[in-house]
Amino acid sequence: MVKRIAVFVSGGGTNLQTLIDAQASGLLRSGEIVLVISSKPGVFALERAERAGIPAFVIPRQQLGLAGFEARALELLAEHQIDYIVTAGFLSILSADFVQRFPNRIINIHPALLPAFGGAGFYGLRVHEAALERGVKLTGATVHFVTEECDGGPIIAQQAVEVRPDDTPEALQRRVMEQAEWVLLPLALEQVCAPH
Ligand code: GAR
User: Fold this and answer.
1) What's the number of domains the chain is made of?
2) Torsion of CA 175, 176, 178, 180, to 10 degrees
């Protein structure tokens, strides 16, 4: 049975787009994206979902608070009979209570080689700023299961990316996306959804 996937987003949704493309090309075939939930209104990820014909909902996290967001998300997840949740560029930390309802069922993409540059406060461009400040020569991306420990759940897949001496946070973010995130996420998701 093809698994039913919800993708949680908060921004541009390039990782969502990668999954939509992987579905179209057949790379992702054991799972189907049937629901997109954005924690912010007006983000481009919503347009990507609409273009792909995937039902998309905004649950304004700032307005409703985390508890309000999660309560509405739970309703939508049940209505759409979701098997797996992917947090892709989703910038809220889910509560322990929420996470424990979906053991090994929530998959996150993080733009560093965890456990380096992970945890609360490490999101988006900040992760790459921290990597450059620390002077690491390799960084990358990690796909992992979400547990109540932020960025601390079991690792599914990692891909390393070289840091260049002249990198800016923006240049490094772009290279990590191109060489690691967009490659790794569809492969890891197919692996998780495939019958075994
Ligand atoms: C991506 O690099 C993603 O890994 C990161 O936000 C960026 C935006 O993704 N996520 C985190 O930092 C989560 N801690 P997007 O283009 O898919 O919206």
Assistant:
1) 1
2) 140
- With a 6 A CB cut-off, is 110 part of the ligand 1 pocket? yes
Amino acid in the structure at residue 37: I
Residue to mutate, 109, 129, 159, 174, ligand 1, most ligand atoms under 8 Å from C-beta: 109
Q: What is the pLDDT of residues 139-150, one digit of tens each?
A: 999 999 999 999
pLDDT of 51-98, one tens digit each? 999 999 999 999 999 999 999 999 999 999 999 999 999 999 999 999
Containing domain of residue 10, as a range? 3-193
Does residue 196 carry a pLDDT above 90? no
Q: How far is the CA of 110 from the centre of ligand 1 (A)?
A: 7
Helical H segments across the chain, by residue range: 14-25, 44-51, 61-79, 96-100, 125-134, 169-176, 182-193
pTM for the complete prediction? Answer: 0.97
The candidate with the shortest Cα–Cα distance to 163, out of 186, 180, 183, is 180
Task: Check if 80 is active-site.
Answer: no
CATH number assigned to the domain comprising residue 34:
3.40.50.170
Per-residue pLDDT at 45 exceeds 90 = yes
